[in-house]
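One thing: can you check what follows?
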Amino acid sequence: MLSQDAKPIKQGWVLKKAGSGFLAQWKTKYLVLCPYRDSDLQLLVFDQRDTSKPPKHRIILSEARIDAHGQMGAFKLLAKGATPFTISGNGRKFYFATHTKIELDDWMQYFEIKRRPRQATQSENWDTRSVYSVATEYQHDDDCVSVVSGMTRMTTNTRYEDDVKSAVSNVDTLSFYADPILTPYELSLMGDTQKDKELKRRTPVVKPHYNQWNEKYQQLLSAKCITEEASLQKDIQLVEFIGDFQEVASFHAKNMIDEYHIGLSNSYPLKDLQCHKDGMTLRFACNYDEMKPADVDTNHCRASDELRAVNAVTQAIAETLDQSKSLHTLLMALVDYKGFRVICYADIGNATNMQVIHDLNPRRLKIDEKACELTNAIGQFYNLQSHTVQVNQDRRVRVYLAANAEIHMDRHSNQLYLTSLRDMFPIDHYTNEDHLGQVNPEHRLRPEFLRVYQGNVCADGLLPASGASRAEKEENDAQVIKAGRFLRETWIPSFIQSLDAMEVRPFDSYSLTLEMHKRGVNVRYLGLICHKSSIPFIRNICLIEMVARTAKHVFRTRLREAILHFKSVGATNIDAEMRGYGASFFSSVLGVGDKTKHMFESRLRPLLVKKFGYPINWRQFTGINKHALFHAMQYHCGVIFDDSMDYDFDVSIPVERFLGFQHRVKTLQGTPRDVSRTGLKEEERLAYMLQRHFKMLGSKSKLVPSNLSAQYLTTVAAYFNSTNRYEEARLYAQAACSIANKNHIVSSLASAQHLDALAGLQSTTMGGPDPTILSIYRQALLVGQWHWGQDSLMSMCLHDKMSLIYHKAKDTKQALEHHKMSLEIAEKSLGKTHFITAGYLTRAGCYLSNLGFIEEAILHLTQAAEVFTSLQASPSLIAEVHYYFADCLSARGDIDGAIHHAQKCRKIRERIYGLSDPRVMDSCRQTAKMILAPFQDYKGVLTPPMKQAYREAIQCHEKVFRYLQSKKKGKLNKRGTIRKAPVQEKELLLTCGPLVQSPFGWAPPLSASLLHKLTKEIVSMKLNLADAPRIREIIRMFRVKGPEIFDAEEAKQTILRMAAVSPSVYLDDIFHRINHNDTSAVNELAMVMTLTERETVGIAQ
């Protein structure tokens, strides 16, 4: 086993060859590299990640030989992309392989450094101490609220895990290619700060030598991946490295700003507003001592545009052809703290190393058309139109991005770096701007929109560099105007429509902005969305986000002014004043009284109209949900208040418990893969999503409270609930509840999934929900109502979940009561003509019908049908309403109406689902039942309408019979139920509103015993429909004669022949043969009648 003193240096999953020849196979092993004796190292090989057990092999590196290539013939069975290496030691040769070449290079770096001891120079020792001292500081900086990853890949100490084994579940958690993302033990620690600190104290923190950030980053970006698996793993390693960078950068930026506040520069000496630390350059976004607030905002906006463009170019390089692979981008991050912004770059060398080879600025003109052509693929990726730039009187240059983009070359590596990208995307032109003087160059189209826009747009449109000739300029300017008009008149209205239809379901203002950015909609269009949305909940979210962002601008401006004032007078202890100012500002926005009204009229309202173009009034402002606004302001302003629900926003000073400032980091996103286009299963997609998030967080912030982490864990819990894996769902939901703020809506979302999991795990439901379930429901409801009010969609969702839990407990009355509460909220918050409201009406009709309130059930179903029809809803929804209508009308005695709705439902389902769907089979059974209901006890002569009814019923039964036969042969889902469609992430978070389908199960499993019942019914009706006198006489004779004894083999063959086709087809063949005097057909008919009409059948022994 791994001793407590042997702290791991590196560990991870690899492949190891077992066996030889045709018996050879590659198995996953876990390697741990740790110290051995004095200065040696040992490599331990484990079968599992549990290092508390003895290792399978132990290799002393000083006695081993490592070959990074090995004999290629020994690696024939490896998958593409895997990179082999061999280690010879202990008298044998071990064959290993990593999943990517990047992983092998990482392992070899440790092997070579540790196996080759050397004497370091004094300067090298100083560098090592510097890096490690910084790493130790920011790893233990408890005041630093990090949102990024640490540099280590170490796992928890297994000895410490054994001490709290009782807290660890035995349930398997999500893994990304055999690497657990969060162990059950880590999930149990979520939100427990004391245990988290103890875990960090006992967990070894080892930092690799990442002093050369840029070199390692470019190496990761340039790695070629042959397989999709290698691409996914490359992306995970890339975001982990980016997290390493930004964690160090945020630590330095925070301290740099703090020293700047008090006028000191001991640790961070500034030269031209920047300093160098640990292989990175940190620079203030502007000169805050001299610039006006408007200029500060402009510089902040430009920095954000640069980061967005670098992200976009990195993604384009990763997905375009090889012609753009020789271009590189910078590793950077933006850190906002106390109103200041620091831009952090990885050092790429000094001015003597970097040479500008392409720059169209007339004052430093450098032209390299060959290098510029490399950007062509990037421009095509974002539908950017190439254009000609007149650089001087005699020279024109064709460019593919913005004219001010620059290309630098590193003299040492000959790598080309694409920089100055902030103007890469075209200007977003407003239709009411009639001339160039009104164009705002800070308003740009988003790359997500350009990717889906069906047209080419010039990056320099509406700017002097948009073309070399007048005709070209006019054409390029017209392209930009057309794109902006399409965004506002077509694209944004379609997004609003999806919001109103709840196809996109944001649960707070932050999630709304994420959805906007995913679809390429700028935040400045919040006012347009608020104006055109018909849903009060969406309008409220938009107002909250607009006010919060406006308040952020005012708060940061005032905060900077106050800090600069303290700096000018030499104050050194300003924390108390800053905390008091923060609490006072929040009270002036969130409270009541003249002070709040003055803040709104003088500062918030004018700025909000300027930023968003929305004319908000005092009545609208006072109607905003202050609890949700409180959370949004904390996020945007970068402050933390006490996590409780004791705030009273009906007083002049509602908030006082100001805890401190929190820095925010904007960073690169790596090269995320579109997993929807891969062959990954839904669980593997979720694992990739979860791994990306927590690799970004790092070891320091992995287990600390975070609403964003809780959101991801809630998504996973919802997936496990949807697949009936309730134990896993409970584990992730509990972790989400523990890590979320107790007064935030995410906590209520996590509790909703916890409810589902506990209800699924409840062994018996006849006594009603477990008291724990009721307690969680009440607490979640309290949080949801605190955040959004009594009529919130979260409350609607929780009532709906409790309704289903009571239905599962066979308490339909309580289920209806909770469902009515959901229906009332839907009518108030979404409107009576919304399709979710129609879904609640449909389900209410099901409950009422089950309780015997048929007339009321029919009324609800009628309203639902009217709403669905007016909205031109999906035919599948309308079919469901017809299905329940048929049951209700049948119970009322209106058989003709029931048959009409049953037939309509069946025809719609057959058209959209085909004949191999259990929903269609359920409709066929319902239709047959309705058709035969009037003649159930009839014993007389068949009339023409009865004969027609029998024929239709036989047709329905025949379809079900063939379906069951196909299922029996393995052509369909064995259970006969519908396979659930892949659950999309957007559907997992809020899930407000029920499924339209009945809670009583519209597609019950079709058992094999149903075949015998269908056969008897089909044969009975077929015999009654026999018209030929001879056949009718034979049937009458056999019924009078009584049962006969048949040979077992003969009876078996008859059954097989009848099952091979169908009872109806088989009887038609018998009738045909009887009419042609085939005596064997008479015997077969007798056997069929005996097998289907008798309770017992005599078989000859």
